[in-house]
Amino acid sequence: MKNILHVLAIDDHVVVLEGYHSIFKSLDTAPFNQLKFIKAIDCKSGYEVIENHKLKPFDIAVIDYSIPHYPERRLHNGVDVAMLIRKHMPQCKIIIMTMHKEMDILARVFRKINPEGFINKSDCTTDELIAGFGKVLEGEIFHSRIIMDYLKRMEKGIGLEDIDIRIILLLSKGIKNKNLEKYIPLSASAIEKRKYKMKRLLDIKGDDEELIHVARIQGYI
Predict the structure, then answer these.
(1) What tens digit of pLDDT does each residue of 115-147 get?
(2) 3-state helix, strand, coil in the chain (%, to 5)
(3) What is the distance between the alpha carbons of residues 205 and 152, in angstroms, rounded to a whole number?
(4) Residue 153 and residue 159: Cα distance in Å, rounded?
């Protein structure tokens, strides 16, 4: 008797979907001996596929965060679609793919979905992606490097406040230090103290340009 692995992949780039299909075909999917791979390209087609498979739920779903929305169903991104899967197919393993590094987006993914796999697309080679998909299929959790760095910062309590991020954003737009208090409801000395604290938290020894650079790399801006 055939034991079928049901996979759903949602991404608005067809070549990416083909790549995911190739990865699953290359994996050792035991005890499954057959692969059924379903593709969707946006929130609407994802919704329709989920609705049509409620009685034959997926075993694993790979979903891109940034896919065209479906406002009629209040589905605005991949997380909203993943929430549907959590509701209707609670045993389905979910892998979220993204190019985003912003901390608010990463936090939302964990808060709403807490996926079995969470991968930043800029993080992984094809081999690492194959290994990550394989680990999730085997029942393990897989996070790419950027996601692991984010979790480590959260564990250590290394997080910037909204006003800190506003300061960095203003600096990144070319606003001079002497003019920051025109945009931020703090005195010049209070702003300097916050900058000093930020640099200590992020282990920065250099100037404001390094602060901007590190903040961008770590997804704060």
Answers:
(1) 999 999 988 899 999 999 999 999 999 999 989
(2) 50, 15, 35
(3) 21
(4) 7
